[in-house]
Amino acid sequence: MLITVIGRGHGGTRSMSHTLTASGVYMGEPLNKSGDLIPPEKMYDACRVFAQYVPYLGNNKWDFSKVLTCEIPQEFKTLIEEFLHSVLNSPAENKGWKIPETTLVYPWIVRMFPDIKYIHWVRDPRDCILGGHVTDDLNVFGIQYDKTDDIRTNRAISWYYQREIMHATPLPKNVISVRFEDMVLKQDETLARLEAYLGIPMAKIEMRPDSVGRYKTDDGVHMFDFFQAEMDELGYEAE
After folding, report:
1. How far is CA 204 from CA 20, 37, 62, 104, 207, in A?
2. What predicted TM-score, i.e. pTM, was given to this entire model?
């Protein structure tokens, strides 16, 4: 069984990676403290290849139609296969990987690996944009957007872009959606769902309840108009 986690950086995806590792799933090597497969450079380069096929239409709209139908460049396939070398060549029965930038190339990952187990991971955007991540500035990965001088706005657009790319991608054969908040506050219930989905016993790791709702004590801007529809869909209530 091959597994990957699709979710934005600073979304709590490390808890999923650590849970999978504790459950006996080989997550590649080496890993950093966030449970990301490293070094990341080949994945980053793959993201830049992918971005060339996603025109920006303005006003936080992107055209994903080409990436859903065009032939995937061999350069991209080679970069992904080299990045995943330790995973793809492992004899482990259950294996996978986690690095947030996988989300930036999700349509082509699904087309390359249609039969693997996908875990869609989400976190309340108001918490997700409080901390920094390399994907805060989409330009770093060749993705065009209306960049601002405000890092919170750029982070918010990055969160929204990655939701848009998930919406644009047809659901793979095997997929489950998990909210970070449920992993923290309803861990037993969430692990039971994951056990049923993956077909393996899931280990329990320590989670911090204070990681939920941090935006409530934040003095900066953490809510944006374009969050609202996504929050409604994901079950996050506006204050």
Report:
1. 10, 21, 39, 29, 9
2. 0.94
